[in-house]
Amino acid sequence: MALAIMCSGGDAAGMNPAIKKFVDYAHKLNQETYFIYDGLEGLIDNRIKKASHKDVAGIMHIGGTILRSSRSKRFFEYENRERAFKNLQTCGIDGLVVLGGDGSFRAMDIFSKEFNINFVGIPTTIDNDINGTEYCLGADTALNVIREALDKIRDTASSFNRAFVVEVMGRNCGYLAIVSSIISGAEVCVVPEVSFKKDALAKRLREEVQNGRRYILAIISEGTKSTYEIGTWIQDEIGLETRISILGHIQRGGNPTVHDRMMAFEFTIGAIDHLLESKNANKVIVYNKGEFQLIDIEEVVSQTYQVPAKLLNAINYLD
After folding, report:
1. Would you say 34 and 2 are in contact if contact means Cβ atoms under 8 Å apart?
2. How far apart are alpha carbons 15 and 125 in whole angstroms?
3. pTM confidence score
4. The domain containing residue 22 runs over which residues?
5. Residue 70 above 90 pLDDT?
6. Quick one: pLDDT at residue 160?
C-alpha cells in the first residue's frame, strides 16, 4: 500500500515530528510513503515525491513543516479537485494523512464525497479550535512560546509603573488567551466568548492601584479586535501608562515541546493504522478524555468548536 502525507493551512510545531513518525512507522509496516509538498496547492500541481528515512532525518526538533503548506482557493473549483485526485491515482496512493485545521478538513470533506479518497485527518492548529477534539497538535508549543514572552514582559512591567497589553493569536477562539492568562497570572483577559465587564474590572483595578499595585498585564485574543481599545481604556480609566505588544507569528514557530512530539507520534500511528484497516476511512483522529478516537469528518466540520466551560469560568476570576 502507498501512503502520503501533507500539511494544509497554518503551520504548527509538531508537524515535523508527525512527518518523521509517518515515514518511520509506515516503513516499519512495509508501506511505501509519499510527501505532498505545499499543501492543497501541491496536490493540484502534482508536487508529490516518494519519501524515505533520509528525508526525515534530523527534523524532530524543527518547528514549522519541511513539506511547507498553503491555503488554496483553487481547490474549491471542481476541475482542480479532479486534477488532484488523478495525481493521487497516478502515484498509486491508497491512503492520505492530512495535517490541518478546520478549513483543511472542510476541503477534504468535499473532496472525499466526490472521489474515492481514503484519508485520516490529524487536527493541527495552534488555535486549538477544531470541533470534536480536546487537543490539536501545535497548541502546547504555542502556549509555551506565549508563556515565555509573557514572563519576560512581566519582568519589565514590574520594573515600571506601567500596564502591558499583549495580543495573542487564536482567530475567533479564545483558548490561547484564556490559558495564557491563567498561567501568567494576568489581571485582564479579553476573549470573543465572554463579555468584557469593563466597569466592574475598572473599579477593582483602580482600588488595587491605590493600594500599591504598580503594573497590570492584560491578554487580548486577536478575534476581539479590541487590543488598542483596551490599551486606551486602561490608560484613561486606570491611570497607568500603557504599552501594547502584538506577539504575532512567533507563536507558530519554535521547537516542538515534548508534549507536542509525543502527541504527534500517537496521532500519526493511529492515522496510519486506520488507513491500513479501512479502504474508505474519511475520518479525523481526535483526543478526548485521555484517549485517541476516530470520528467522521462530517462531525468535525458540522459544528463550531466551543471552549470548555471550565476555562470560560476562569475568566470570572480575572474580571
Report:
1. yes
2. 10
3. 0.95
4. 2-138+256-303
5. yes
6. 87
How many separate domains does the chain show?
A: 2
In the structure grid, which three cell numbers stand for residue 159, read together? 520594573
Selecting among 38, 102, 127, 260, the annotated active-site residue is 127
- For residue 315, tell me if it sits in a domain: no
**Domain stops at, among 237, 252, 267:** 252
Beta strands in the chain (DSSP E): 2-7, 32-36, 48-50, 95-100, 119-123, 162-168, 188-190, 216-221, 241-246, 283-288, 291-296
Residues 6+ apart with CB under 8 A from 32: 1, 2, 3, 26, 50, 92
Residue 117 lies in a domain: yes
Match 478549513 to its residue by C-alpha cell. 103
What b/e readout covers 296-317, taking b as 16+ CB neighbours within 10 angstroms?
Answer: ebeebbeeebebeeebeebbee
Domain boundary among 224, 252, 280: 252
Q: Are residues 27 and 62 in the same domain?
A: yes
**Is residue 296 flagged as an active site residue?**
no
36 occurs within a structural domain:
yes
Please give the grid coordinates belonging to residue 200. Answer: 466592574
Does pLDDT of 197 surpass 90?
no
Residues 106 and 14 in one domain: yes
Which one, of 141, 138, 122, lies nearest residue 293 by Cα? 122
What residues form DSSP beta bridges with 137?
A: 124
Q: Measure the CA angle with vertex 96, ends 25 and 28; round to 5°.
A: 15
Phi, psi (deg, nearest 5) at residue 113: -75, -25
Closest CA to 9 of 101, 143, 77: 101
